[in-house]
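Our preliminary data section would be incomplete without showing what the modeling component actually yields. Below, a chain of 448 amino acids is followed by its predicted structure, encoded as tokens that our downstream tools consume directly.
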Amino acid sequence: MTSAMNQPTERPAGFQGYVHQSQAREDEELTHVDHGTSCGEYLRRFWQPVAMSSELGELPLVVKILGEELVLFRDKSNSVGLLHKHCAHRGASLEYGIIAERGIICCYHGWHYDVDGTLIRAGSERLDSPICKNVVQGAYPVTEKDGILFTYMGPPDKRPDFPEYDTQHLPGVERIPFSLTTPCNWLQVYENTQDPIHVLHLHTRSSGVQFGVASGVDQIIEYETSPTGMINIQTRQVEEYTWVRTVEAILPNANQTGAIWEEAEAEKYFQRTAILRWMVPIDNFSTRTIGWRDYSSETDPRDQGDRSLVGKESIDFVGQTEDERSYHERQQQPGDFEAQVSQRPIAIHARENLASSDSGVARLRQLLRGHVRNVAKGNDPPQPPRGYKGWVSTYTQDTVYPITLDALQRQEFGRAVADTVLETGDLNHENRTRSVKKRCKKYVPPTS
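Predicted structure:
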């Protein structure tokens, strides 16, 4: 670390555009996702959402994920297949295939594949042709959950059990799938979830209040490793209430976040999420954010959400897509989409100048890099641990407690709430809520 004595005493000279030209390249280890790349192999070891169920009709659907072009279809027996796009016979695209009672038939020569890629019949070849025992079309398993289709694209013998998350089992919650495309690398979309300081600037001071007045209040921010990845801890004083929000990154590429328009105006404990989503690389230069938008009377007491806006390339809060507003409006009031995409198709980390407020981004990159390198060494990546009823315990929540604290006390209080949230992952929702409430009630600010 540079000592204070060696710190520059004057600002550097301006107009340094010529000097600051750089040939630095993207961080391939974390941003490139094709088959065989370090990050691509890591991401392939987890179940990834590939499309909404509503996107599948009577015809095959071309999809791209992790740089691979695939064909997704539902056969007439209601089984879902995800096959390599080009037929193993002569390479015709299966997007023009005929949906069968079982599997799909290539239009070119009638080669008939089951959903697992095995060859049922090789067109005009005799039924006992040995070719059916020798040829397999590339295929990936598919699981359907609450209107979203997930696939596993890694080594077949390493396939993990499909995870279910605790917030998927909360009563009184309506869940609507959505899918958004962002024309930039997956990492700059994902790391936005561990950059809470941008809420203060981008979503309040730069563009006006986009997600609630309380979100624009200065917050104390800390970060902590969680059993599933990491959380950020945001603690704000909103009039007579202290508001503690925790937002999590569920490795490798999932995120949960709390109520979109939380105003911290009423006492509450361990209020759960408004979004569970995955930032899935389509390729190195584009991302599909796909997940569920959750609605409940707790997270949206004013009924500000609009369910009719949630779906394909659309969601009910500002700044997430290109087509929702004109370019002029997006320049005047930029949102997440503009900030993320404008970092270049792949952000160049070597040209960044990270500051103390970027410690969450740096921590997330460090966590990911460690897991990527672990897989590259031939090891298995850790899967999300299971808690109550075998569900994956998660750590996103909002707690609002009627207490007025100074900055040091708020930091201590926020840490106490976050620690309780992290320590109670094996409990059910009701007991976790009681534990957080009990911890808040026991808190006594230290006297000076």
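The mean pLDDT is 94. The chain has two domains: 47-158, 166-442. Preliminary results of this kind motivate Aim 1 of the renewal.
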